Amino acid sequence: MNGISLRLYVTGHTPSAERAVAALADLRGHFGGRLSVQIIDVLEDPVSALNDDVYATPTVFRITPEPVRRLFGDLSRKETLIAGLGLDTEPDQAR
Amino acid sequence: MKRILIIDDDASVRETFLAALADRNYALETADSGAAGLESARCRRPDLVFLDLKMPEMSGVEALARLHAISPDVPVYIFTGFYRSFLEPLKDLQKRGITFDLARKPLTLAEIRAIADGVLKHSIDTAPPYRPTRGSR
Hints:
The complex is a heterodimer of chains A (95) and B (137). With 95 residues, chain A is an alpha+beta fold.
């Protein structure tokens, strides 16, 4: 799989946000430099949350590779993120 | 059983939450004002609170500040429109160390279920396990 770009929406430093951030850090260890993560606080940038149709925080989006995927709920485990965001597909399928 | 407290002055919103979570194994309580919600939270600690931001008399901001004083570790979802004018008062709460998550209004039934299930999966069930007394069925 080529570059992976994720976007995480949070509201400050809630326990659920902290768990998601920790899991994404874990994911960085898994994918190395191929993974980039953007973290957006909805209180600071509600317009982006509206544009992405975020219904609650924390929510993570896979921006690339397309298609865009959204995952809300238990974001505390690396395995959940990989499966939920479809990051476990074969390289040819992900391009 | 984990307990969810829904605080909103709009009866239709409270009904929507009850409908969404009816088939889940949660204890559901509703309150039609911030004051009523705080009274409920004082009587028994909720495991999750859904709190409307815009309410008459006591706003969601004030209710959250008071709720935090009662139960600082209870997860709270404030539901509101994602607009700067609505969200600005919440920044002051954040600066005071009061944490909360946001949900936009209106929420679908599936979104309500996803939030409740997602949050409560990580909370400790504070209710004691059910133990039938001798002679009970």
